[in-house]
Specification:
Helices cover 59% and strands 0% of the residues. The protein is mainly alpha-helical. It comes from Sphingobium cyanobacteriorum.
């Protein structure tokens, strides 16, 4: 992955959202799943990162509904939150 400029850029953006909560969710999702993504899934993730942190966290926590445009297999994986690691 380190040789691919696109993936390096995506990784940086995923981990530098602006809030720690969004860094852990978006960055953690990237770390866990990016190696499995095809071109369409990478494009989905890049669009997803354009959303506001508050919305992403709300979807992840289930406090606001996921808009229809984001529903599907990628969002289903994201909502599992099986990738969030919080360090002490």
């Amino acid at each position: 992955m380190n040789d691919d400029p696109q993936m390096r850029r995506i990784k940086f953006r995923a981990w530098h959202r602006g809030t720690r909560e969004a860094d852990y969710t978006v960055g953690g999702f990237f770390e866990r799943y990016h190696g499995e993504w095809n071109a369409d899934e990478i494009a989905w993730f890049e669009r997803f990162m354009e959303e506001q942190d508050a919305d992403i966290i709300g979807w992840a926590l289930g406090t606001i509904p996921v808009p229809d445009e984001w529903k599907g297999p990628m969002m289903d994986r994201f909502l599992k939150l099986d990738f969030v690691k919080i360090e002490n």
